[in-house]
Amino acid sequence: MGKNSAIDLVEKAMFVLRLKKPQWEYIPEGWKYLKGHPEVKGWGVEKILDVYRKKWPFYASCVSDKGPVGITLEMKRPEREDVFAHNINMSFSYALGVSALGKSSISMLDWGGGIGQYYFLAKEMFPRLDISYTCKDHAVFTEHGKTLFPDQVFVSDESCLNGRYDLVMAGTSLHYSEDWRKTLRDLARVTEGYIYVAQLPVVFSGEPFVFIQRPYKYGYGTEYLSWCLNGKVFLRSAADAGLELVREFIYGYKPRIYRAPEECGYRGYLFKSAGNGDKSDS
Fold it and tell me: What percent of the chain has pLDDT over 90?
């Protein structure tokens, strides 16, 4: 057996072993788990972009016509009538509509915006609205996003925090920040209008906890840690950051996290800047 064949067999064996682990699992040691676990590569990996590339034509065709928008790039199967995905997209559209009320143009920061899929959705849902769009994410995504939407801004650093925006969106991203309070304060400081925190895993009775996702069945080839926050604590922290709650959203998604101390559910929150974004957390 050649060296390359042996390596292939080892990689296949490791992949099978990872598939046998829970896709979602409670991590009692929290973010310390990162030390000694190189398989936790986070989101910025090429394999996720490969999946997005393959799904993009079908996604774009569904969003562009007049049918349901029950589709996301993260879905395992190509379909357009998923209720969870529909709730995600229509909740975002509501947040965008509120932010654009009475305006012909807005500026938007998409924190963790991938390849710009929400810009594409926004333009399809509000075709007459002029959107100055900035996407912040890992370079592997933003470099591809530039090819899809060359007239918009894609960055992989935090230079976007030097701007001001009518709408700031943190979609499926805030809970991947170990210091999520700082990230929330940073985002609060750069909004002149609204902040939409989308798909945030929360509990309401117990303490926040850390869990891991192993999305190998989606072809992502990575693992990543995440917070499941206490919803009440999160809302207090948002108020401390100068944010006033406008509307709360539910998506109908409650993943089963192995050994989790409490059932987790994904929620969204639309906030309006109250003008005191420099206020620190207590």
Answer: 88
Domain presence at residue 45? yes
Rounded Cα–Cα distance for residues 167 and 176 (Å): 20
Q: What is the pLDDT of residue 180?
A: 98
Task: Tell me if 278 is assigned to some domain.
Answer: no
Q: What span, in angstroms and rounded, lies between the C-alpha atoms of 82 and 93?
A: 16
Residue 149 corresponds to which tokens in the numbers above? Answer: 């939407």
CA 93, 257, 139, 29 torsion: positive or negative?
positive
Tens digit of each residue's pLDDT (9 = 90 or more) over 221-259: 999 999 999 999 999 999 999 999 999 999 999 999 999
Task: Please tell me the chain's helix, strand, coil percentages from 3-state DSSP, rounded to the nearest 5.
Answer: 40, 25, 35
pLDDT of residue 5: 60
**Cα gap 91→96, rounded to integer Å:** 9
- Cβ contacts of residue 188 below 8 Å, gap of 6+? 195, 238, 241, 242, 243, 273, 277
Band of the pLDDT at 4, cuts 50, 70, 90? low
What is the DSSP track for 129-170?
SEEEEEEE--HHHHHHHHHH-TTSEEESSSGGGGS-EEEEEE
Tally the domains of the chain: 1
Does residue 15 lie within any of the structural domains? Answer: no
Residue 4 domain-assigned (yes or no): no
CA angle 141, 265, 180 (to 5 degrees): 55
- CATH value at residue 128: 3.40.50.150
What range does the domain containing 116 cover?
A: 24-273
